[in-house]
Amino acid sequence: TRGVRTGPAALRGRRATVVERLAPTGMVGVDGELWRASAAEGAIDAGSDVEIMGNEGLTLLVRPVSKEARR
């Protein structure tokens, strides 16, 4: 059986919304919780949707969601 996954590792593959501009670090919201996040490349403006790719400690690593994936 698989154990219960919690914390940042459990968020991999999920979507979040940028609350504080990522340049490259800032804050994102996931299920009503705020997390520190770092953009994989470049800056991402507040209000943008991002995908959680992984984490480094308690910081989420994110990338922008493609326009096609938002539909």
Q: Helices and strands in order, then pairings?
A:
Layout: E1 15-20, E2 25-30, E3 33-39, E4 49-56, E5 59-64
Parallel strand pairs: 3-5
Antiparallel strand pairs: 1-2, 1-4, 2-3, 4-5
Describe this structure in words.
This protein is mostly beta strands and 71 residues long. Helices cover 0% and strands 46% of the residues. It has strands at residues 15-20, 25-30, 33-39, 49-56, 59-64. Strand 1 (15-20) and strand 2 (25-30) form a beta hairpin.
In brief:
This protein has 71 residues and is mostly beta strands.
Report, as a whole number of angstroms, the end-to-end distance: 35 Å
Q: What's the arrangement of strands in the largest beta sheet?
A: 1-2-3-5-4
How big is the Rg?
12 Å
Give the low-pLDDT segments: none
Instruction: Tell me roughly what share of residues is in helical segments.
Output: under 10%
Instruction: Please work out how many helical segments DSSP would assign.
Output: 0
Dominant shape = globular
Following the backbone from N to C, one meets helices and strands in this order, namely EEEEE
The overall pLDDT, averaged over residues, is 90
> What structural class results from the helix and strand content?
mainly beta
Labels describing this entry:
single chain, 71 residues, mainly beta, 5-stranded mixed beta barrel, 5 strands, 0% helix, 46% strand, globular
